[in-house]
Design goal:
single chain, five-stranded parallel β-sheet, alpha/beta
């Protein structure tokens, strides 16, 4: 009886070690695949669009500090002439929560013309944002903007989907009280997107009609 229990404990311990090793190996693979395409803004190539990935928006419509920094970085790249359009991609799954209109409003206050801002209302995940950038907005070459912990995964996903993707880090502040949690969650997210982007490649929740990024961004405005 004791021998059987000991064998089970050893087996469970070995399985745990194996799972941890696989998770960390996949995590490292995604990091290495993405990091080599991260560039400073002054060295970033010209692209079809700058893609700003969404983050938390407060009930009063104000953007969180992380999202503020992503939008500022995206705006700076646009102002340098590195891309003629900006895509803001995030969660607008209900009337009560709307990242993309808050993002567009932020950029319009910076005097970015409305026609140069495309809203992706169904960017519910990093994978979906990149898939839709490719298939809905017809982007081939993109500069992705987000914080560094997230950027390597975003670039990995984009390149697995066939996009010529580069990334610019949006870490303009130290994000107290959120980074440890974000980093730990990101390990799980990298493993999930490794399977999603490299192996499964599912369709996003929503696709819809093609809206070429070469056109007028106002076609993505709410029709209400």
């Amino acid at each position: 009886m004791r021998k059987s229990l000991k064998q089970k404990i050893i087996l469970l311990g070995s399985l745990t070690v194996l799972i941890v090793a696989v998770v960390l190996s996949v995590n490292q693979y995604v990091l290495q695949a993405g990091v080599k395409y991260i560039t400073k803004s002054e060295n970033a190539p010209e692209a079809d669009a700058v893609l700003v990935l969404g983050a938390r928006v407060y009930p009063n419509g104000n953007v969180s500090l992380m999202l503020n920094d992503r939008l500022i970085t995206g705006y700076e790249l646009y102002e340098k002439g590195l891309a003629p359009k900006i895509i803001v991609s995030g969660d607008h799954g209900s009337k009560e929560y709307d990242e993309v209109n808050a993002m567009k409003g932020f950029l319009k206050e910076k005097d970015v013309p409305a026609e140069d801002i495309f809203m992706d209302h169904a960017g519910f995940s990093t994978y979906e944002s990149l898939y839709r950038a490719r298939d809905i907005f017809q982007v081939k070459k993109v500069i992705i903007v987000t914080q560094e912990y997230h950027l390597m995964r975003a670039i990995f996903v984009a390149r697995e989907l066939g996009l010529e993707a580069y990334g610019v880090v949006a870490d303009k502040h130290v994000y107290h009280n959120v980074m440890l949690r974000s980093e730990l969650r990101e390990i799980a997210a990298r493993n999930k997107d490794f399977l999603t982007a490299k192996i499964i490649k599912p369709l996003p929740k929503y696709l819809g009609e093609v809206i070429p990024v070469t056109g007028d961004g106002r076609v993505t405005d709410d029709k209400e």
